[in-house]
Amino acid sequence: MAGVGTLPGLVAPFLTGHLIDTAQTPAAGYTTAFVAAGAVMLTAGAFALTAIRPERDARRIAHEAGSRPPA
């Protein structure tokens, strides 16, 4: 599963190049690529805001380890 983190590094250049090559002009391709990247970042950020809860995770980890949670 560790290799999943490198997947965007392989897909992003290919997708960006494809968007630039298939657009009517290079400028339109770059605009599309940047808008797509921004949309992905906004979506991932929104997901992170709803999914990441440090306090809850600290309690769960402490419970699993059999110790008290940090104050």
Summarize the structure.
This protein has 71 residues and is an all-alpha fold. The protein is built from 3 helices and no strands. The two termini are 33 Å apart.
DSSP strand count = 0
- How would a textbook summarize the main sheet? none
Low-confidence stretches: none
Briefly note the structural class of the backbone. Answer: mainly alpha
Q: How much helix is in the residues?
A: over 70%
* Radius of gyration, whole Å: 19 Å
Overall geometry: elongated
**Averaged pLDDT:** 88
Determine the N-to-C terminus distance.
33 Å
The run of helices and strands is HHH
What portion of the residues fall into strands of 2 or more residues? Answer: under 5%
Count, helices:
3
Structural notes for this entry:
- Helix 1 (7-22) runs antiparallel to helix 2 (26-51).
- The two termini are 33 Å apart.
- The protein is built from 3 helices and no strands.
- The chain has 71 residues and is mostly helical.
Features:
single chain; 71 residues; mainly alpha
List the helices and strands and how they pair.
Elements: H1 7-22, H2 26-51, H3 54-65
Helix pairs in contact: 1-2
